[in-house]
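Section: Multi-chain targets

For targets with more than one molecule, the full set of components is provided together so that the structure can be written out for the assembly as a whole rather than chain by chain. Components appear in the order listed by the source. The example entry contains four components.
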Amino acid sequence: MTVDADRAVARKAQIFEAAAAVFARLGYHHARMDDVVRAAGVSKGGLYWYFRSKEELATGLVHQMLAHEAEAMRAVMTAGAPAADRLRMVVRAFARELAQNPDRAPLALELLALGRTIPEIRTCFDAHHEQFVEHLAVLLAQLGGPDSPAPGPRARTAALAVAAMIDGMVLRWTLARSPFDLEDALWAAVQVLLRGLRETGPR
Amino acid sequence: MTVDADRAVARKAQIFEAAAAVFARLGYHHARMDDVVRAAGVSKGGLYWYFRSKEELATGLVHQMLAHEAEAMRAVMTAGAPAADRLRMVVRAFARELAQNPDRAPLALELLALGRTIPEIRTCFDAHHEQFVEHLAVLLAQLGGPDSPAPGPRARTAALAVAAMIDGMVLRWTLARSPFDLEDALWAAVQVLLRGLRETGPR
DNA sequence: TCGACACGACCGACCAGTCAGTCGAGTGAG
DNA sequence: CTCACTCGACTGACTGGTCGGTCGTGTCGA
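Its structure, encoded as tokens over all components, is:
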């Protein structure tokens, strides 16, 4: 294939980083390819050597971001720790990630909305969400305690609720004028949800 | 001001309706003003008589949609029914609204994302969210039962969680490839949340 | 007759994408 | 060793289509 594939990978990464920053600052539609070019320290032609179009750049960026997140999730899932602790780690990972670069959340929101126009982005988010719920369901089933949701459909329903809770709280945090402590609020809410989930008898 | 203010209001409403449909179908950025013009049965000049720019049209649309929703919320709040029933009504209103026109949710998501570029939209959503949480807090405090969250900060925190739950579930529903029954899932999740909220002793 | 309202052809800024060309690292025949 | 040639990577000035917005011109009710 390429003589030096590593170079290509590095170049792509460099462009992704620049694109993320530019898209985060200006928003996808207002960002000019020339802006990305400038930020990445590449030429216009160089950019188009690696990406066929602006949409492909955005799609690639989504892939990269979600892959990164999936990687983190997989790491948590395979960590040798009690399920309760691993759940806590998931929440903390979200909060830390967003606290460190607050631009990420609005960027993700915009890319998500972009899914309406670019089907592949939608598909990508879709698959990612599906897998996230799947992971959560496993985690919840492993929680232990006699009344933790049983594996199977019940755990999946519970996982959907937890996932929605996380999404919603992150969304609120993203949009809030006076940002609250995301980790605290998120963890508290998830705990409340779990408490409600226990004690759930038939139906 | 206008000789016939009613006519102007009607015209605006007609344009809003068309704009909502076009934006929902094509997405804000892909939608051409000419598309809106065609859909609304107005001329370009007519459209620009009422809206100074595309952004102002979008902003107006956001105002109108949120005002409509706020209206519905106020109606629920002042309804003469037990708090539990009113909460149920809120959930049902969401589910029905979205079931009736499934295009609304993605449209709202896109407009929300547009808030990154158009500050007034962001402000508008912000105020709306704030008020929504406020209403929910009142509702939760009125829920009755000895352990319903007390009015004040505690109710507000609880309300934030409930609001996030609703947002998140709607988001999941919006993006899900195989849409589930939103009303069921939402109500179940809210109930779980409330159950967890009860029994919450000090801290 | 007047002015609010409506019309739609037209303008021109803007920007994604192109393309003709440069550069430097291989390759291999003589 | 070297010269002629290939090829992948990269450059940046340029273009052509696309729309948001304008403007000169009606129309019609009061």
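The longest helix of chain A spans residues 54-77.
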